[in-house]
Amino acid sequence: MIIVIDGPAGSGKSSTAKAVADKLDIQYLDSGALYRTLTLIYLESGKDKTKFFELLNQKSISFYYTDGAFNVSIGKQNITDHLRTVEVSEHVSTVAAMLKSREHVNRLMRKAVQQGAWIAEGRDLGTAVFPDAELKFFMVADLDTRAERRYKELKAKGTDITKDEVKKRILERDRKDSQRKSDPLRKADDAIKVDTSEMTFEQQVNFICSKITDKFQRLLKY
Ligand code: CDP
Ligand code: CDP
Question: Comparing C-alpha atoms, which of 151, 39, 153, 159 is closest to residue 87?
Fold first, then answer.
């Protein structure tokens, strides 16, 4: 069983999906972390596309969710702590725009969710990766709200950055994610839109949990 949440950066997908996974005791899948993992390999290749895809075919990527953290390993090495650096963030949209990268990540995800119940979040899960997902959500929030959230997170981590800079980077990533040719960020027709601009975190978690419980109670009845 797979439930998906798509939406732009800072709309609340990952923190909400994790909270829902914890509450309902299901697995969590962070597709952005997988694109970030490929980006690490891309950087290792010296940003050489041919070498990147050669390296990618040689490496085995695995992942698991535990204690609120989505862990990724390349071979035996846990590389989770390297996924959210500024360098990876700056290159991830480029890597995610390559068709072969998308095919690779999609294969990994589709294989993983064959067993158990999952909530996954990303950009194209409801449209391209899991068009038959049992439930789809599309999370949005206005740009200022999203920039403010990211700014707070980065400040808490001690990153030296201005709010304007954060806003500029989000805007640029929104643009790249929505305009790329392969599987751009887009709401699936059957996805439930959740605008979190004026919602508290608890409200959006409860809203999604209630939709899931509703749906599965109904499925059990028939
Ligand atoms: O957390 P944040 O929204 O900043 O980004 P992320 O979820 O870690 O995803 C990083 C990047 O991966 C996004 O900006 C997209 O370029 C790409 N991505 C994608 O193309 N498709 C997905 N399903 C998930 C992420
Ligand atoms: O995954 P995505 O990039 O969509 O967002 P995120 O990584 O979950 O970041 C959203 C941030 O905003 C987190 O620090 C949340 O705790 C916070 N937040 C939220 O998601 N929803 C609210 N209503 C208020 C704050």
Answer: 39
Using H for helix, E for strand and C for coil, what is the string for 74-94? ECCEECHHHCCCHHHHHHHHH
> 2-211 has which CATH code?
3.40.50.300
> Is the beta carbon of 15 within 6 A of some atom in ligand 2?
yes
CA 219 – ligand 1 centroid, Å: 31
Give tens-digit pLDDT for 170-184. Answer: 999 899 889 988 889
Residue 17, token pair as written in the block: 């999906």
Tell whether ligand 1 has an atom less than 6 A from the beta carbon of residue 37: no
Span 136-186, pLDDT tens digits: 999 999 999 999 999 999 999 898 899 999 999 999 989 988 998 888 999
The residues near 189 (Cβ < 8 Å, ≥ 6 apart) are none
